[in-house]
Specification:
This protein is an alpha/beta fold. It has helices at about 10-20, 70-75, 80-85, 90-100, 110-125, 145-160, 165-185; strands spanning about 30-35, 45-50, 55-60, 105-110, 135. About 45% of the residues lie in helices and about 15% in strands. A five-stranded mixed beta sheet has the order 3-2-1-4-5. Helix 6 crosses helix 7 (about 165-185).
Length: about 200
């Protein structure tokens, strides 16, 4: 499956619908769908949204040694092993494209412990290392905003009325939820929006 890029105009419309801040202030956000949780689990789809709203998403064909599969997880994300075999891309190809597109950036996620492990498994399979830094989205939230984040995310997801559950769609919801909190006057934890680049 070729990576998908959402048009910037669509991203701007999403941002307006969610009451988002200007994209220059937004971080790059990444999300991963996996075969399940725990030992042996691995990434099956990776998506991210850049500060300007451009989105990327790709399915990953499992390595032969990646045998773990959780039927409950499949019911949640709707991605089957047969779909991955037909439309997924090799881990090395996906890792190389992530490094090209995200080089030098600080990339944020909301499930750091799992996402870090799944990303590490991808790059281990590709025999390479990420050229970007994965960080926890909560670093960008004040204590008050962190308490409101889950409720805000539910509101943003409903407003967007996403037709498909995809990693890039989840990343967009996270990014716009953060924007909605910032626009509401809840400053990030370090009192300044990130510039998207790793320190």
């Amino acid at each position: 499956m070729a990576p998908s890029s959402d048009h910037a105009a669509d991203a701007d419309a999403d941002a307006a619908a969610a009451g988002a801040a200007p994209h220059a202030a937004l971080p790059c956000v990444l999300d991963i769908e996996a075969s399940g949780f725990g030992r042996g689990s691995y990434p099956i789809e990776i998506g991210f949204v850049l500060p300007d709203g451009t989105a990327y998403c790709s399915l990953i064909v499992p390595d032969r040694s990646w045998t773990h599969w959780d039927a409950d997880a499949e019911r949640m994300h709707g991605i089957s092993r047969s779909l991955l075999e037909r439309h997924g891309r090799r881990a090395a190809e996906v890792a190389a494209e992530l490094n090209q597109r995200l080089h030098g950036r600080a990339v944020y996620c909301d499930n750091w412990a799992h996402d870090y492990a799944w990303l590490a498994r991808l790059f281990e399979s590709a025999d390479s290392s990420p050229s970007f830094q994965l960080r926890h989205l909560r670093e960008l939230l004040s204590e008050n905003a962190a308490e409101r984040f889950d409720d805000t995310r539910e509101i943003v997801a409903r407003n967007l009325q996403l037709r498909r559950h995809r990693a890039s769609s989840d990343a967009r919801v996270l990014q716009l939820s953060l924007a909605k909190l910032w626009q509401g006057g809840t400053a990030p934890a370090n009192d300044a929006p990130p510039n998207g680049a790793a320190a």
